[in-house]
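2024-03-11 09:14:02 INFO receiving multi-entity request
2024-03-11 09:14:02 INFO entity count = two
2024-03-11 09:14:03 INFO echoing inputs for audit
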Amino acid sequence: MRTNYTITAACLAIMLLVASGCARRPQVTPVGQPAGPAPGTQLTVAMIPKIEGIDYFNACQRGAQEGAAELGVRLIYRGPTENKVERQIEIVDGFIAQGVDVVAISPNDPVAIAPVLRKAAKAGIKVITWDADAAPDAREFFVDQATPQSVGYALVDEMVAQVGPEAKVAIVTGSLTAANQNEWIKHMKARIAEKYPKLTIVATKPSEEDQQLAFTVTQDLLKAYPDIKGIFAITSVAFPGAADAVEQAGKKGKVAVVGLATPKGMKPWVKSGTVKTVILWNPVDLGYLTIYVAKAVWEGTLRPGAGEFRAGRLGTVKVQGREVVLGEPFKFTAGNIDQFEF
Amino acid sequence: MSLAGIFSRRESILAAILSLAILAACIANPADFPRVSNLLEILRLATEAGIIVVGMTAVILTAGIDLSVGSILALCAVILGKSWHGAGLPIAAAALVAVAAGAACGILNGLLITRFGLPPLIITLATMALYRGLALGLSRAEPVHGYPDGFLWLGQGTWKLGPVALPVQLPVLLVVVLLGGIVVGRTYWGRWLYAVGRNEVAAGLSGVPVRALKLAAYTALGLLTGLASVVYVARVSTAKADAGIMLELDVITACVLGGVSIFGGDGSVWGATLGLLIVAVARRGMDLAQVPSAHQSIMLGLLLILAVALHSAWSQAMHRAALERAGAVVSEGE
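2024-03-11 09:21:47 INFO inference complete, emitting structure
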């Protein structure tokens, strides 16, 4: 029993030691310090994807590393193992405790991430978003791959080119709360209402960045709506899952699959003819641009409404208000898909 | 000296592990970890799970389990949002409705388990899907936000106590843990939980109201989950149906790490809370040390295995020591 008290006392002593350790530590950097790293210190950018370990974000990471090497920026890249915003909140909180200079995040939920982003801003950290946006008042800039309107229009126009203007289609999305996916869907519906009113969306289903789930969801859609003509699969994980389901159901050529994904991930189905076109942008460039924007925001050289921004090997990109746009969506087809390694 | 000789209480093993975890985190991150603000933030982020862990301990003590807590959290969060935004109730009333909804989910779990005699694992697996579906259907996947600042302060704000900024939800966690620990550890009701977990038939024959007790345990868990959902919505400022996915795993991990035996009848609220803190400290320490998320999962898995092995060894050593004290002959190779 006595040993027990000794242990408890020892534990308490350790914890008190830890807590008192802070008394000697200098304060966190005061708010209102001049922007830009002090001469001789390196800018630290913390970059957080929606989820770690999928091709699309791995490509973004490569681009970010390239940009960081060019600019002499220290890049910390870390994301959750599931596309959940709760884990992202913890990760950002950890970065605040570490005192990074810039946080660049692709959030799984635009509203839920906002409180911790505002907390980061209060601690003197610059906050930008990329790939998917957060609540606009919680971040300084959003690095957008392509305007949601151009993405939505490209998807719908491509589908109509394949199935005609009168058909039943369904949407397989990632998560029902992701801002970027919802923006694209909004513009898809606007395009349909404006130009192709006879194109009917029969269902919108989430697949939570899980290819297996996307496969099952698509299978169910094919069974539930036997006269369906096209599936929109608008994430890089949903697209292969949906294409696989259509091919395995023997509906290649009868049901069109149009979506957004990395060309490398979609190669098998483009070669087999199930998928005619893959729409995307270059995620490597997106990661690269994010780092350039991060540095410029930190230094104060990028101002809202600047109109344009020079980003290394990308040249000049457009800036609309507080949004930096990478460019127009790109179409990968059987003709050019071999040229890309992401 | 045997394990049981050094640690005569299971909780002291956990306190030792927790101190080691804190030390390791401090060594790995000497500039960032040992700060009061960092430690307080760890507690803030662990509050919701901590509240639920107290209730889960009571349920697991009866040799039961509840896999539906994540879904209950989501459903209560959605109900809070809908009560406030859709039905126009004042936020405090909406919060009470959310807590009541949690209790209702718990009652349903308890009734299904005690009436049908099916394993709690199966019943709560089903209700996990049921409650999640209800949450999705009620919310139609549209999150509710725009809560009043006073409410958000509950999850995001701080109380200034001298130089220290205490997260607002921290007293809530402390009260729940203290009350839970006292009720489970020091009341008749608490002792009945252990009795039912160790030997349900004997407990029943000895006059313990087994069915009512189990129902109470699941209801308490549901109610606490409802409370956690209020804190959750205040913290992330949005009520959405996909909240708390996999939360049940985090809660059960904390309980098991904290020495609550999955077979029932062993463990305590204090241990489970220490287990939760160990996981929270380990995760934060690894985050600060730039450990990639995938590696963190591996580390936590190993930590869990280690803890379970330690608890098992300790239980056996305690059992052996008790037999020796009673003068029984303990043969080798047992």
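2024-03-11 09:21:48 INFO post-check: Chain A has two domains: 44-145+283-326, 148-280.
2024-03-11 09:21:48 INFO post-check: Residues 44-145+283-326 of chain A form a domain with the Rossmann fold fold (CATH 3.40.50.2300).
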